[in-house]
Design goal:
The complex is a heterodimer. In chain A, 77% of the residues lie in helices and 1% in strands. Chain A has a two-stranded antiparallel ribbon with strand order 1-2. Chain A is flat, with a radius of gyration of 27 Å. Chain B is of the alpha/beta class. Chain B has 9 helices and 10 strands. In chain B, a hairpin with a 2-residue loop joins strand 9 and strand 10. The longest helix of chain B is centred in the last third of the chain and has 16 residues. The chains are: A mainly alpha, B alpha/beta. Chains A and B meet through helix 7 and helix 8 of A and helix 2, strand 6, helix 3 and helix 5 of B.
């Protein structure tokens, strides 16, 4: 609107102009999404074509054995259950440890604070691969024999717990001092303040990054295959791949399964995040 | 009448900074006392020492017969502080409503969690107090959907629902847009008229003049004047008080 003209004509036109502008912006956003989607499709086609064995401008693409894939599809897919089992058990353990470590970090009792920082430092300072082997191969020397699954879950849980404690610590720190003061002024004990006021708000902050960790963990669960006793996707893929010298096909299949799993999990996570964002805040 | 709040020779250090210097005040039951002073004068710290949001360094605080020494330790001391907090309701500058709870849940949280009050009874009490601040119709909203003024009125209802003997207000209107200040002051006026003992840290000279029984002026960690509002605003004794009042009159705070 250029002026507060009294003709009414200008006043009527102005909103429709805004409307047009808005529509143009919407169109632009839609176009962007469509084009990104198309490009994704093309990239995917190129990737598939690369493994098609066809001749392209005199360059021979990679030939894979579809017979092998058909024969071993079900065997490798059979590992999905174990992979998810390891991931779910580990994330539960990791969440509990992360919460304890984050709370320990807030403690004013020196041994508790020390225990928390010691744990995080030790675990983050050593490789996950080593930790898995430690629980599976080193402990038997001390007379403690763990199953592959148990050793794997223990190692993954401890490892991710240490990293996730930082997420939880940030979540706790995101709750303002005023919130604690309001709770204290009402007469709440420190424990009531934590349980009723701080934790619920910290959790809301921590849920989306915890989802990311869970997705990362489904992939790191492949390391548990190193124990040789957890028959998850990676273990199955390397087993049939090595035995029949078809590692290429076997690993491609495993890769597709992991990729699909993370796509589904990312989708689930985005749904949860939208819910949280829309929620009552 | 015996004072309901008695602060004696209170000292508070932040590190090496001496922010309260042997401050003593008395507040009688049903009295409304306003604390004014420039920022950094120690008025908020004094208020926050009364319910031990700040631990005073030296001195004693007595609220409704509960006497707490500054440097106490141990379980008995903590219990005393807890009991003092039950006798005092606090309203903050930044409202500090719990964002993950609805208005009603915010207001019943104290009675249910701290006092173990029956939920139905707490809801009844909460609804009465929300009605008092004129926000019963917002009881199912979440704080995010309220204006600043409405948030502060809910915060007042939340504090009142704990049925305290004394209400402490820490600059309750300082975080509000100017057009929202009136509604909060009106609610405070109503609470005062209903006979609540109130200690109010404020920059609202109009409110102090109209509602307070007594106005305390703080400067550099000390109380420099303790007067009835009419006397104070008409004939300030200390030049610092005069400067303070003049500044608010000309609107350059």
């Amino acid at each position: 609107m250029r002026s507060d003209s009294t003709t009414g004509h200008v006043v009527k036109l102005a909103p429709s102009q805004a409307e047009l502008l808005y529509e143009a912006q919407q169109r632009q956003a839609r176009n962007f999404r469509t084009n990104v989607g198309l490009s994704w499709g093309i990239l995917l086609l190129i990737l598939v074509y690369l493994f098609s064995g066809q001749n392209f401008l005199g360059i021979k693409t990679i030939q894979i054995d579809f017979e092998f894939i058909r024969n071993n599809m079900i065997f490798i897919a059979g590992g999905l259950g174990e992979t998810l089992l390891v991931s779910v058990l580990s994330i539960v353990l990791a969440t509990i440890l992360a919460l304890l470590a984050a709370l320990g970090r807030l403690s004013t009792i020196p041994p508790v604070y020390a225990l928390s920082t010691f744990y995080v430092s030790l675990i983050r300072g050593t490789p996950l691969y080593l930790q898995i082997f430690f629980f599976f191969l080193a402990l038997p020397q001390l007379g403690i024999v763990l199953t592959g699954l148990f050793a794997g879950v223990l190692a993954l849980g401890l490892n991710y717990g240490a990293y996730m404690s930082e997420i939880f610590r940030a979540g706790l720190a995101s709750v303002g001092k005023g919130q604690r003061e309001a709770a204290i002024a009402l007469g709440m004990t420190p424990w009531q303040t934590m349980k009723r006021v701080v934790l619920p708000q910290a959790m809301r902050f921590a849920i989306p990054p915890t989802g990311n960790e869970f997705i990362a963990m489904t992939k790191d669960s492949a390391l548990v295959s190193a124990t040789g006793f957890v028959h998850e996707v990676m273990w199955r893929a390397t087993r049939v791949g090595r035995a029949q010298f078809h590692n290429l096909e076997a690993l491609i299949m495993a890769a597709i399964f992991y990729w699909l799993m993370t796509l589904v999990l990312s989708y689930v996570q985005s749904v949860i995040e939208t819910r949280l964002a829309k929620g009552d805040r | 009448m015996a004072p309901i709040v008695q602060v004696s020779k209170l000292d508070k250090y932040f590190g090496r900074l001496h922010v309260l210097k042997e401050v003593s005040i008395d507040v009688a039951p049903r009295e409304v006392v306003c604390l004014i002073g420039r920022s950094g004068s120690g008025k908020s710290t004094l208020l926050r020492c009364i319910n031990f949001l700040e631990e005073p360094s030296f001195g004693t605080i007595e609220v409704d017969g509960l006497k707490v020494e500054a440097h106490g330790k141990g379980k008995e001391h903590r219990q005393l502080i807890h009991d003092v907090r039950l006798k005092t309701g606090m309203v903050f500058q930044e409202f500090n409503l719990f964002p993950h709870m609805s208005v009603l849940e915010n207001v019943i949280e104290g009675p249910v969690t701290v006092k173990g009050m029956d939920r139905a009874k707490a809801i009844q009490l909460a609804e009465e107090n929300l009605d008092r601040v004129g926000l019963l119709f917002k009881k199912d909203e979440y704080p995010m959907r309220l204006s600043g003024g409405q948030k502060q009125r809910v915060a007042i209802a939340r504090a009142l629902t704990m049925e305290p003997k004394v209400m402490l207000f820490d600059e309750p209107t300082s975080a509000l847009d100017p057009e929202l200040i009136g509604e909060v002051l009106n609610v405070m006026k109503k609470v005062a008229t209903d006979g609540m003992t109130m200690l109010v840290v404020t920059h609202e000279m109009g409110f102090a003049r109209e509602v307070a029984d007594r106005v305390l002026v703080m400067a550099d960690g000390e109380i420099i004047e303790d007067e009835k509002p009419d006397n104070l605003f008409n004939q300030p004794k200390d030049p610092r008080t005069k400067a303070l009042i003049d500044r608010y009159r000309t609107g350059t705070t």
